[in-house]
Amino acid sequence: MLNEPEVQALAWLKAEPDKLEFLQRKVGARIQRGTELVTVSCRAKDREAAITVVKNIVDQYTKFATGRARTSDSERFAQLQKLRSDREAELNLQRERLSALYKEAGIPFGSKSDAHISEMQSYHENLTKAKAERSTAETQLRGYEEILRLAEELQAQFKKNPDAPLYGLNIEDKVLSSSVVGIVRGELAKVEQEIAVSKDRYQPDAPQLKVLTDSRESLTNQANKVMREARAEALESVMETVRQAAAQAQRSVEDAKRRETEFQKYIDDNRDQLIEAKKREMMIEELKQNIADTQGKLKQAEDQSYQIDVESNAPAGFQVPSEVSADVEPKSDKRLQFMALALVGGLGLGFCGGVWRELTDQKLRTAQDVASVTHLPVLAAVPHASVDQMPVPAHGPLLTVDYPGSTIADEYRRVITRIIYPPEGSAELNTCLVVSPSRGDGKTSVACNLAIALAEANRRVLLLDIASRAPAVEIALGLEPAAGLSEILCDGALGAEFMRPATHPNLMTLGPGHHAQELIGKLASREMVDFLERAEQAFEHVIIDTPPSLLMADAKLLAPVVDGLVVVAGVETSNLGMLRRCLVELQQVGANIVGIVLNGVLPTRGGYLKENRDLYYAYSDSEKAFAAAPRRQAVPMEAVADAEDDPPVIMLLDENDENKTKDAGA
Question: Which string of b and e fits 229-247 if b means at least 16 CB within 10 Å?
């Protein structure tokens, strides 16, 4: 088209150095949706130049396409005719080879070879079965021989000492199940009972007692004799039974060997014949497949030849349905409209994304998030160390000691008010389990700080670590791991010797010890319950650090036997689903969940979690009076262990009851 004079004369195109590349950017063609029409367009500032370019493009393409179609159809038809001849010759040759193979194999082919192959497969299966039966019979024979050897040893023992019991092969069970032995032993037991009664009634030299004694000796001798006979009979019966079974197993071994030899001989004799028949069958199947492929290719060539023949006699494959036209006014781009539409769409997608994230957000950040999961109270919201402006790094388990005036220490003291001064109708928590849904919630730090805060309140506290897989309490308090709870439960030690003082005079710590695997199996034992009872009497509070509740079952094993649980949920660590599942699993085992401690809380837009302040307990006058009541005195662990044999006295709280005390032993 560029060689046409009227196109070369266009001023719009003359100034372009590469006219072909310029027109490739300006000219386009597209198919109208749902039709067979093709629209050719040209973008140009000169209306007449655009019409000239499009008109020449359409004319040149019409000449080129119609001429090429006629030439290409003629050449393609000749090629297809030659291909058809080649395919027919190849098909005839393949059919001749197939006919020769059929004649060589016999008519009808397939029945002889297939039957032979099926028969050979059957012999192979029988050979495998015979080998398996021989192995099984040999194993049984060795077992019977071992039993027979044991029976012969028992027989030798019996000959040396007929009255001695024979422990093995259930000989003594058969002797005791004998009816004769049972009758004699019953009579002997009856005489023994009469002698016991007569000793209280008669003198030792009384004739009646002497008669009974003689009768007992006679029955004893008779019982020994009957048992010897029964023992000999049982031993002989076992040996005879084993001999018969061993003989049967030997016959099975010989029969299996014979059949194995026969099947192997047949397979060896007919292997060459089978291989030859199989090769011939594979050649025939391959040739049949080649014939089918050739027939398909021949059919395809015939169809293509017929299609070209029909199209060559048909009208033109395309036509120009309309004249070239152009708008009087040029079309402007809708760039601004598209930008506005993209802006509106982006804002809409952003709004939808924000709503979707808000609805599906499961992260745990505030007390309101906890309230959406459970009605349990939030005991404290422990801020992140960065919020409390503490130096970095700050040792989490000892924050109550290192920074007693910090907000974090104050939050821990809020938790111990719930432990020391419970609500009306609740008892003081002597044993408290500190649990968390997953790792990284800060459970160990909370347990250590609670124990330290209680110790600072002049209360004797035991900090117990049962996380035997990854103990952390001793390391957090600066102690080396040593013997502890596992030695107490497994070795029966009292426990006081393994308890070590920590950071405060009133605080003792006890780690899991060196027997980690044994401790895991002992958490639900009676020994663990007894240890907790002794610890409650020796200490005012026992704080127990546990492994993550959703990962391990240790906390669930102790939850029913302690006074209460404090669940620690780390902000940005545990989500709402994890907290919900942790609480449900603990409630299913009957745990008394005191409340939730949010750990590592960060500031929000409304300030430092003001909403958490509304969820703390407001104690009434009765609760304050209960808090002012004198505490019970701690008893050393050694004294508790020494007093376990004496029945404790229980004080009844009902003042109208006349019996003020009750002996627990009674």
Answer: ebbbebbeebbeebeebbe
Strands (E), 365-437: 378-383, 431-435
CA dihedral sign, ordered 385, 391, 393, 394:
negative
Helix (H, G, I), strand (E, B) or coil at 15: coil
pLDDT, one tens digit per residue, over 191-212 is 778 777 777 777 777 777 777 7
Nearest-angstrom CA–CA distance, 166 and 620: 78
Q: Which CATH number is associated with domain 112-299?
A: 1.10.287
pTM for the model: 0.44
Give the dihedral of Cα atoms 594, 522, 529, 440; nearest 10 deg.
-20
Nearest residue to 441 via CA among 267, 324, 567, 610: 567
CB atoms within 10 A of CB 150: 15
Residues of the chain with CATH 3.40.50.300: 367-651
Residue with tokens 């939730």: 596
Q: May I ask the CATH class of domain 367-651?
A: alpha beta
Distances (CA, A) of 421 to 364, 427, 564: 28, 8, 13
Q: Say how far apart CA 335 and CA 352 lie, in whole Å.
A: 26
From-to residues of CATH 1.10.287 in the chain: 112-299
pLDDT tens, position by position, 23-59: 898 899 989 888 888 999 998 888 888 889 999 998 8
Q: Which residues of 359-394 are buried (b: 16+ CB within 10 A; e: fewer)?
A: eeeeebbbbebbeebbebbbbbbbbbbebbebeeee
| 239-282 tens-digit pLDDT | 888 888 888 888 888 888 888 888 888 877 777 766 776 777 78
